[in-house]
Amino acid sequence: MELKPTTDPLSSFLYVAAGWTCVGLAVLGALLPLLPTTPFLLLASWCFFRGSPRIHAWLHRSRWFGPTLDDWDHYHGIRKSMKYRTVLLVAAVVAGSLVLNSLPWWMKYLVLGLVAIGLSMIWHVPTLPDDAPRAPRTIIS
Question: Where are the domains of the chain?
């Protein structure tokens, strides 16, 4: 089954609304340690593809999001430096948060378990070498 943009105005609106929500969550994920960025970007790209090819093209041309989306589309992976930065940032922020808060011990272990699950998911995504050629731009228009 080939995936195509929708022609129904209501569906289009809902896809675009979901896409913008995912972009917002991706931006928050860049700032907050427990919220992932890349999965929300990928979901936003898919939602925009279905709801608005124009916004989909804009997202892929974006200076901040375009290279990551292009790497995923072309190589199905993320660059090594981005993966290491993400893992180090999450580990540092979570460690600092756990040391400086007054959560009960069981909640600290719960947070550590959830973070471990998230980090293992990040770690299992295919890794691209930093010197890999940049993926070709998938969206020209």
Answer: 9-128
Q: DSSP letter string over 72-111?
A: HHHHSSEEHHHHHHHHHHHHHHHHHHHHHS---HHHHHHH
Query: Which token pair is 59?
Result: 């997202």
**For the purposes of burial, counting CB atoms within 10 Å of the CB of 21, is it exposed (0-12), middle (13-18) or buried (19 or more)?**
middle
Q: What is the mean pLDDT of the chain?
A: 86
Confidence of residue 138 (pLDDT cuts 50, 70, 90): low
Query: What is the pTM for the complete model shown?
Result: 0.68
Please state, in angstroms and as integers, the Cα–Cα distance from residue 93 to each residue in 34, 65, 79, 98, following that order: 9, 23, 21, 9
Burial of 129 per CB tally in 10 Å (0-12, 13-18, 19+): exposed
Q: What gap in Å lies between CA 67 and CA 1, rounded to an integer? A: 27
